# Entry
Amino acid sequence: MGFATWLKQSFPVDQEALIKLTAEPIPNHLKRWWWALGGTPLYMFVVQVITGIMLIFYYVPETDKAYESIAYITYSSDFGWLIRSIHRWSSNIMIAALLLHMMRVFFTRAYQPPRDINWMFGVVLFLLTLMFGFTGYSLVYEQMSYWAMQVGTGIAGATPIVGHWIADFMRGGSEIGQNTLTRFYLFHVVLLPVLIAIAIGVHVYLIRAHGVTELKFKGEEDQEKKTFPLWPDHVFTELIMVTIIMILLIVLSLLFPVQLGEPANPNVTPLHIKPEWYFYPVFRWLKITNLLVGVLGPMVFLLILFFWPFIDKFLDKLFPGKEVGLWIGVIGMLLICAFTVWEIFGH
Ligand code: HEM
# Structure
């Protein structure tokens, strides 16, 4: 019996159904990577899960051993520095790609019905990914990560009505300590990855169910829509993208390996606390407002983002043909960029 016949017999799969499932026609514009940016966060998530599991072999989630275990991974274990660097860089690329993916969906208005719920799922995915980054940064238990935890739980504590409860839940008490580290560890290595994996599953299922928005470009208005098959064309395009991103990831990790700062010291507040770059706009906003406005601002922003498909529809009805939603998006983006640059160069 040949290998193919043996496999067919031992592992009976409905081939017809498989061919039907993978023969989905993809609109031609997805041949360009900037239209298909959604794949990048997915690959980066997979890389993080693999390298994260490798890091767990040595990481010790105890306040007096966490920093030492990271130092061991970075300076003593074989290729530990590389695994840690790839883990950190892939989280950065995941968030950068997510921001670009959201911008492309926003500015092509691909969130319009029937994809409005998928946009809302996307916003939840974005929040979960930010939490993934925040909890991971804290596990290092160096000065910056310890004080980022202080600031982060402090901000959560300023939320009206439920803030006190949220902050105590995050810390596992009123102070940052062992309970906090245990909780952040649990969230980082179990709860968030599982939730993100489920949310990505629903997101991709909905994309598959609705298909990707068919965009018409200048000069193509009256042409018949061009498509190409998912297998093998799209899969090969994605493989090329994966290869390029992997090379980028390795190059970044070799040129800029992740560092280790001073160990956490609850008695010494650093002169300048800096969170990860993707929290810069919120951090700057907090510096120029009081704590309550500082907390309410990002909350209102997230609510607007979440309900954007409905807000945009309402604005369109109110000001037909004026593209108000688009201009709000441009202004919002410029403000976020300005706050980021301000935080990079300001004190
Ligand atoms: C880990 C996170 C995410 C993954 C893996 C992911 C993956 C994908 C993929 C593969 C597509 C197909 C087209 C493309 O690549 O652009 C897509 C489309 C889409 N995504 Fe995401 N995405 C994520 C996060 C988000 C976020 C944060 C939002 C918005 C807030 C979002 C909203 C959408 C929408 C509305 C579509 C449909 C676009 C269309 O029909 O043209 N996604 N996503």
User: Anything to note?
Assistant: Residues 230 and 265 are 53 Å apart (CA to CA). The chain is about 70% helix and 0% strand.
